Amino acid sequence: MDTFLILTILIVFFALAFDFINGFHDTANAIATSVSTRALSPRRAIILAATMNFVGAITFTGVAKTITKDIVDPFAIDNGSVVILAALISAIIWNLVTWYFGIPSSSSHALIGSIAGAAISAAGFGILNYKGFIKILEALILSPFIALAIGFLMMTLFKKLFKRTSLYKTNKGFRIFQIFTAALQSFTHGTNDAQKAMGIITMALIAGGFTTSTDIPMWVRLAAATAMGLGTSIGGWKIIKTVGGKIMKIRPVNGAAADLSSALIIFGATTIHLPVSTTHVISSAIMGVGSAQRVKGVKWGVARKIVLTWVITLPISAIMAALIYQIMNLFF
């Protein structure tokens, strides 16, 4: 078999594996609040999330095109297939390590850092598309702060609207409403996160000479959506415990406010074709909601641990990908 074909098959496999892992790693964030407040049973939450992730994933392709062309030019990379494969392996390793320790780190940071690290290792810093790369970094950095602010404002609004309603009635109503917000959040997660593997596979098809277009083929969209849906069905209980309970004690009204806030941010990013970290956005929205409720009610020690992981993910994944590329380059 042709080496390019073998590498492309490997990339498709690892890209779908990345989406599968992303399913139980990141999608856990989307249903964490609804599970922790018992608005949904774990089984129903996972079925709902898997379904809505699949629907979201096949509906949009803008983020996938951004991943395909805005970090590095796939038409300009020599040995591009090896670069992409090294990036995928690095991102998967980091996702599995953070999942094992129950840390809600960013799959987006891991993947984007890995692509940049492997590409730089192959062709130097000049290979980066700095305009597109900086635009992506700005979205990744700013989105958690926006989510924190929106979460704070959303919870403040809910407090004013329902201040004369009994706590029991408020929580009962919002527990039902959380079914809708969990579905919405899972849908928006699919519109953004599943796109990243689609972009990677399309980069591989271009690098291998199998296509000359950055348009995302339908079979790629369906495969990535299915992989993420299957991953979601496995569930990510370690992440759910951290996001759903260790940041703050979540009641239905808090969960609904956090879900709505993060869904708005994620879907807004999708509409302008920018990848964001759903992990960052959801966790930050929960912190914002908690701050509006009671600043001391947020477990800032856990929050600091999460933030530290966010900060180190991109450089560590970039270094890992660079090393993996150099090792793989010896064989290909």
Automatic annotation (TrEMBL):
InterPro entries: Phos_transporter (IPR001204). Pfam families: PHO4. Keywords: Membrane, Transmembrane, Transmembrane helix, Transport. It is found in: Membrane. GO terms for molecular function: phosphate transmembrane transporter activity. The keyword Ion transport does not apply. It is a multi-pass membrane protein. GO terms for biological process: phosphate ion transmembrane transport. The keyword Transmembrane helix applies. One of its GO terms (cellular component) is membrane. The chain crosses the membrane at residues 6-24, 45-63, 83-103, 110-130, 136-158, 197-213, 219-240, 306-328. PANTHER family: PHOSPHATE TRANSPORTER (PTHR11101:SF80). This is Inorganic phosphate transporter. It comes from Fredinandcohnia quinoae. The lineage of its organism: Bacteria, Bacillati, Bacillota, Bacilli, Bacillales.
